[in-house]
Amino acid sequence: MGSEMAFNLFSKHHQAHLINNSTANNNGTSSSSSRSDASFVVCDAVPESAQAFARKFLSQFPGANIRIVDTPDQVVLASQTIITMLPSSPQMKEVYTGERGVLSVLNNSKHLSPEQVKSTLCIDSTTLDVDVARQVAEVVTRTGAQMVDAPVSGGVHAASQSTLAFLVGGPHTSYLLSLPYLTLMGSPPKSSTAGIDAGRGLRRSW
């Protein structure tokens, strides 16, 4: 996922979860502050990129709960919603099905309870082969987790302006769960319940 796209998602989600705290002072006055109950996990193949992103985010939102992890399995252990956007099919397969991939946690009852697996949502926006998208989605949903295929149209400018166009394929329930996240980064996404790869068919006819 590009930094502009991720920054929009994180910043808007952070602000949407602000909680106001009021504190009574000894002199009879009161003061208020706000904090966000949102938390974020960043994983990048280039650790320096993840660190630079976290520094930028914290410079604008001091005190935000953001952490960096090294591998996809650590992301799953710390997150309920996982958004991936990778260079292409090989990287997507590795992130999901590799030794320390997403599935290594979803398939292991020692890590997550069945309820936690069912509440896990995976959103993939990688530009990849349709067959790979379908194969990975099948093994993810077989665990009980939910997944949508959300290829995206638009460049850096669209990402910075939150006007990206997402074309979502997958079960309607999963699509509805993905909406709060995708709409923070772009216009209301088109959807299809024809299958996990239907979003790619929509993009071809866009």
UniProtKB/TrEMBL annotation:
<comment type="pathway">
    <text>Amino-acid degradation; L-valine degradation.</text>
</comment>
<dbReference type="GO" id="GO:0008442">
    <property type="term" value="F:3-hydroxyisobutyrate dehydrogenase activity"/>
</dbReference>
<dbReference type="GO" id="GO:0006574">
    <property type="term" value="P:L-valine catabolic process"/>
</dbReference>
<dbReference type="InterPro" id="IPR006115">
    <property type="entry name" value="6PGDH_NADP-bd"/>
</dbReference>
<dbReference type="InterPro" id="IPR036291">
    <property type="entry name" value="NAD(P)-bd_dom_sf"/>
</dbReference>
<dbReference type="GO" id="GO:0005739">
    <property type="term" value="C:mitochondrion"/>
</dbReference>
<keyword id="KW-0520">NAD</keyword>
<feature type="domain" description="6-phosphogluconate dehydrogenase NADP-binding">
    <location>
        <begin position="1"/>
        <end position="187"/>
    </location>
</feature>
<keyword id="KW-0560">Oxidoreductase</keyword>
<comment type="similarity">
    <text>Belongs to the HIBADH-related family. 3-hydroxyisobutyrate dehydrogenase subfamily.</text>
</comment>
<dbReference type="Pfam" id="PF03446">
    <property type="entry name" value="NAD_binding_2"/>
</dbReference>
<keyword id="KW-0101">Branched-chain amino acid catabolism</keyword>
<protein>
    <recommendedName>
        <fullName>3-hydroxyisobutyrate dehydrogenase</fullName>
        <ecNumber>1.1.1.31</ecNumber>
    </recommendedName>
</protein>
<dbReference type="GO" id="GO:0050661">
    <property type="term" value="F:NADP binding"/>
</dbReference>
